[in-house]
Amino acid sequence: MIYSLHGKLIVKEMGFVVVECAGVGYGCRTSYNTVAALGSVGSEVTLYTHLAVREDAVELFGFATSQELSCFRLIISVSGIGPKAATSILSDMTPEKFAYLVVSGDSKAFTKTKGIGAKTAQRLVLELKDKISSEAASAGAGSAIDDIPIPGEASNAADALAALMALGYSQTEAAPYIRKQDQSLSTQELIAGALRLMNSGK
Question: For the chain, which domains are there?
């Protein structure tokens, strides 16, 4: 399995890049968001990858962050959704927005992506909302939320933690950054705020 690539960016197109590693150029399908996040051709880049093997093709998909890769893998775990559709979804939204839409049950938002119909969008939310909830519960997300002082309803914080865990963050990593914020914020604001705090190292 190819976990990641680090090397020189030699081709940069919409939805496709090539990274040269030790003289070998690896072509990767990717999202528009990853293409936008990468530097110019000739710069050093790192991509987190997924190798998709089918009867008629072998394709490498690469993403600028491990969170986007985790999100991609969540999407293709849904029956009837392949790598191409998953990449299209991640071209239209960030991983944190995707996680927010899933935990909030907003299937209609996914139909804005080309190739995603109403039934597919509903299945996406249904399967992943249950999966995120069960993964968060098995990892002890409930106990982490219990440690967060929240007046009244704690569902926004719980949903934010579940979403961040679905993106590949551990409970230990994510919970403190949710706890630092105003607990009256919406789920999406808590997710975005936690990611900002993580990236700033505060």
Answer: 4-63 (2.40.50.140), 94-202 (no CATH)
